[in-house]
Each structure stands twice: as structure tokens, then as C-alpha cells.
Amino acid sequence: MQIIPLPAFRDNYIWLLRQDRLAVVVDPGDAAPVRRYLAEQGLSLAAILVTHHHPDHTGGIAELLTESPVPVFGPAGETIPGRSVAVQEGDAVRIPGIDVAFQVLDVPGHTAGHVAYFGDKTLFCGDTLFAAGCGRIFEGTPAQLHASLEKLAALPADTLVYCTHEYTLSNLAFAAAVEPDNPDLAERTARCQALRADERPTVPFPLGAERLSNPFLRVNEPAVIARAEAEAGAPLSTPVAVFAALREWKNRF
Ligand code: ZN
Ligand code: FE
């Protein structure tokens, strides 16, 4: 089994999982790169997984279905074009011919019904957790997104995170503004800058190291709290309040 990034739009990755002659795609915002890859490699589409309803994650579904009428798994709480299987927390996704079973996790915050898929040390988390960052809060609350990130961060340390955007360098620039003296952050930034200079993806990334440099997972660190309080101009008495202040700051960063 292999997982391949298909770049789309400016900074999206459509993840394609392949085993033998079968392929599963996650969040196909655009059909063209998927159809091209399937044709080049002689693969048949077996299923589509969707994390949330935004067009850059769903825009290619209808066109893919005209060629391959495959099951489309998507969050029960959202309207997903072509969805045939509504999934939510506790469900398992099994696809004939693909050896991984994915566990569905509800991770609201970026959108109200956002789900993630976890199986075989692999996490497809859409726009919830990013490398050194997290999604914007469009439909949920800071408390929801904070809880969703903590849920993901509690998965096994050897999990590889396949998020949907290459936002890493800008996330790291923000993280450095929050924690200028964090040595893990400096090391990660150097590594990711080298990857991007080579036009290589910084995703996937290991979940186990994420807490060392992602400010949104570090809201209990005294240095992060102090910086967030300075930015907010007020004391922040709970981890969620620190998280909300960081997210708000990042929006205007
Ligand atoms: Zn989104
Ligand atoms: Fe997106």
C-alpha cells in the first residue's frame, strides 16, 4: 500500500492510497489530477473519502463518479455531493480490496461536521490539524476545535498525519512569533524550508513530534500562555482561552 500526494489548486493535497490496481482518494477537490494519475498508472478508483464539505475538498466528486460509480464516505452532519455512506464517530470504513479499515473520528471546529479517518498508523484529518498549525474556525467554536485537536494528538505517536494543505512554512512563521526561543521549532523550520526549496511536501508528518512545535498543541506551556496574554491584552485563565487567543491572532498574522 502506498499513499501519494496529488497537488491541486494552490496548496491542496488530494491523497491517493493505492494497493494493487485499486485506488482510494481523500478530499478530491478537483477531478483532473486524480483522473490523470489513475489513467497513467492503470488504476481503478475504489472509493472516495471526504472529511468536510468545503469545495476544495469536494469539487471533483461528481466528475469522478460519472466515470467510476464508487462509494463516497462523508460526514453525516454535512451536505456532501454524491455521498453514499454517511459516517460519524465510531464507524469503521472498509473498502473491498483495500487492507486498511479506517476508524471515523468526529473533529468539529473548522466545520461543524468535520470527520477524520484513522487506520494503520495513517490519519487523514482534512483541515483540522496542519503541520505546526490548525484550521480556521468557520462553523465551530474554539472549545470544539481545541477538543478535536487534543483528540487527534492523543492517537499513537507513530501515526503519520496527512492533512490537506501545504501551509507548513506560514504556520511555522506564526509559531516562531509565539515561541521565538523554541529550539524544536527552529530545527523543524530549517528542515521544512529545505523540503520546500526542493519542491517536496512537508506532509505527512509524524504525530508524535507535533506537540514539540505546534503552538495550538502547546496552550499549557507558560511561554505560550504569556505570549498569548500579551497579544490579547488580558489574562487568559483556561487552555481554551489561550487557544482562542492564538487562533484569533493567527487570523490576522
Ligand atoms: Zn476546509
Ligand atoms: Fe481546505
Descriptive account of the structure:
This protein has 253 residues and is of the alpha/beta class. The protein has a single domain (2-251), classed as Ribonuclease Z/Hydroxyacylglutathione hydrolase-like (Metallo-beta-lactamase, Chain A), CATH 3.60.15. It is 34% helix and 24% strand. The chain has nine helices and 14 strands. The chain has helices at 32-41, 55-58, 61-67, 142-153, 168-178, 183-197, 210-213, 222-232, 239-251, and strands at residues 2-8, 12-19, 22-26, 44-49, 72-75, 85-87, 92-93, 102-106, 115-119, 122-126, 129-130, 133-134, 160-163, 205-206. Strands 1-2-3-4-5-6 form a six-stranded mixed sheet, with helices on one face. The protein has a six-stranded mixed sheet with strand order 7-8-9-10-13-14, with no helix packed on it. Helix 5 packs antiparallel against helix 6 (183-197). The longest helix has 15 residues, at 183-197. It is globular, with a radius of gyration of 18 Å. It starts with a strand and ends with a helix. Bound molecules: zinc ion (ZN) and fe (iii) ion. Fe (iii) ion (FE) binds at residues 54, 56-57, 127, 164-165.
